[in-house]
Write a structure and sequence with these properties.
Helix 1 packs antiparallel against helix 2. 16% of the residues lie in helices and 31% in strands. The strands form 4 sheets. Strands 7-6-10-12 form a 4-stranded antiparallel beta sheet, with helices on one face. Strands 1-3-2 form a 3-stranded mixed beta sheet, with helices on one face. A 3-stranded antiparallel beta sheet has the order 4-9-8, covered by helices on one side. The chain is built from 3 helices and 12 strands. The mean pLDDT is 90. The chain is elongated.
Length: 202
């Protein structure tokens, strides 16, 4: 009853609220953190448990159930960097549609050695050494190999005569959110290496 705090002379209907700060039991703040990650899996992984919470305790569990580089895998990596002891359930969804892509077109032949830098999303930048004499095809092979070496990346890379095509591992429109940055920290004479401060897969 709130009659003790309501002025009896007040005859107008209204809602009355009493706030008591510091009253009642308090949380110790030491309870377990349990988090559900919902995201796209790779098509190559099992559909048996789609849209069903799956408890995981290691990154390998996330890879086994969702695929390396899937949205769920990458979310798990980011989460456990901040909360190492979190209890995690993953919920897989199979994406539909076409995988987004981005093409890096390299031309020319290197007459000096240099470095090409590529960064996709929040991943660390990748520096690729391009030696003197590299043709566009040879440079493209180096770029593709360096990018494919990142097992948790959200894309795969393939080179055809100097055009390196990055393809999102998960199909669907969300691949359009992948942002790529390219720069040339050390110039490579004779070779044209595309640069961008921020372009998106399509």
């Amino acid at each position: 009853m709130l009659t003790s705090i309501i002025d009896t002379s007040n005859k107008r209907p209204r809602a009355f609220i009493k706030v008591s700060l510091g009253a009642g039991p308090r949380s110790t703040g030491s309870g377990p953190i349990r988090i559900a990650l919902i995201g796209n899996r790779l098509a190559a992984t099992s559909a048996a448990n789609d849209e069903t919470p799956i408890p995981v305790s290691t990154e390998d569990d996330a890879i086994t159930n969702s695929g390396s580089g899937s949205e769920v895998h990458r979310m798990y990596r980011a989460l456990t960097k901040a909360f190492r002891n979190a209890s995690v359930d993953i919920v897989n969804i199979l994406p539909v549609g076409t995988a987004a892509t981005y093409a890096i077109a390299i031309t020319g032949t290197a007459t000096s050695s240099g470095t090409y830098r590529v960064q996709v999303g929040s991943d660390d930048p990748v520096d690729i050494s391009i030696p003197t004499g590299s043709t566009a095809t040879a440079a493209g092979n180096l770029v593709a190999a360096a990018l494919n070496a990142i097992s948790h990346a959200a894309y795969t890379a393939a080179n055809v005569t100097g055009t390196v095509t990055l393809t999102a591992k998960c199909a669907g429109l969300r691949g359009n959110l992948l942002r790529i940055r390219m720069s040339v920290p050390t110039a490579v004479a004779g070779l044209t290496l595309p640069t961008s401060t921020g372009a998106y897969f399509t």
